[in-house]
Structures are given as C-alpha cells and as structure tokens.
Amino acid sequence: MSDNEIIAQVRKPNSDADNSESDEDEVIETFKISNSDAFECFAKGLIWLEQQTDSDSTERALLKRLRDRTAKRRQSCLRRSKLPFKPM
Q1: Where is this region: Disordered (predicted)?
Q2: Nearest C-alpha neighbor of 71 from the set 31, 37, 46
Q3: Got the DSSP string for the chain?
Q4: Sign of CA dihedral 85, 82, 72, 44
Q5: Within 10 A of 60 (CB to CB), how many other CB atoms are there?
Q6: How many beta carbons lie within 10 A of that of residue 49, not counting itself?
Q7: Is 64 exposed, middle or buried (0-12, 13-18, 19+ CB in 10 A)?
Q8: Pair 35, 74: CB distance under 8 Å
Q9: Are 63 and 42 in contact (CB under 8 A)?
Q10: Terminal alpha carbon distance of the chain
Q11: CA nearest 68: which of 79, 83, 76?
Q12: pLDDT at position 1
C-alpha cells in the first residue's frame, strides 16, 4: 500500500469489518431470571456478606431489602399460579 492508501484507510469511517467485530463483542444473551432464583441469590449473598468482617449495616440492609422484595414477588407469583381459573 502506498502512503496515500494507508492514510485513506485510516481516515475512512468505520468499515463493515470493523462494525461486525464490534457487534460481536456487544452481543449479550439475555434471559429472564425467575423471582425464586433471584431470592436464592440474594439470600446466599446475605449469608456471605454477614460472614465478612468488613461489611457494614448499610450493605446488609440493602441486601435484606432486595431479598425481601424478591420474596414478596415470588409469593405473589405462586399465589397467582395456584388460583383456580373460573370462566365468566
């Protein structure tokens, strides 16, 4: 390549090859985490946090609030799924 070709290539806006590489890096598979799974994670995280010597009450309170919120949502979903269906 000549100097002019190299300069043109460098100045060229993002090429298709560059875009495809960056798109591949940005692909993140997402899936919905259930309320039960979230509750279990927060509960285990809280146990872990309480075992740490450097944890403070603010951290524990936040994790407890998140655990309690997921517990309520989990219970709400369980109640809705157990309600019998009554046609109108």
Answers
A1: 1-25
A2: 37
A3: --HHHHHHHHHS---HHHHHHHHHHH-----PPPHHHHHHHHHHHHHHHHH-TT--HHHHHHHHHHHHHHHHHHHHHHHHHHSPP---
A4: negative
A5: 14
A6: 16
A7: middle
A8: yes
A9: yes
A10: 77
A11: 76
A12: 76
Q: pLDDT tens digits for the chain (88 residues)?
A: 788 887 778 887 765 555 555 555 666 778 888 999 999 999 999 999 999 999 999 999 999 999 999 999 988 877 666 656 666 6
Q: What is the predicted pLDDT for the residue at 23?
A: 55
Nearest-angstrom CA–CA distance, 66 and 15: 44
Residue 80, CA distances (Å) to 16, 37, 49, 85 in order: 49, 18, 32, 10
